[in-house]
Specification:
Largest sheet: none
Distance between the termini: 27 Å
Number of helices: 1
Helix content: under 10%
Number of strands: 0
């Protein structure tokens, strides 16, 4: 699976599914677990770039 980092995210993937993994940081959280990223750096408020 080749995803061009430079350029607009593909609207339609070969699988026919929405490109949710194209930009995980910009894309809205799919799973109701927003604290999942914060767990990587507990006690650090700057964990959210």
């Amino acid at each position: 699976e080749q995803r061009p980092d430079s350029g607009p995210p593909l609207r339609k993937r070969e699988d026919g599914q929405e490109p949710r993994l194209e930009h995980p940081r910009q894309a809205p959280p799919r799973r109701p677990d927003p604290g999942r990223r914060l767990r990587l750096a507990p006690g650090r408020r700057q964990a959210r770039l």
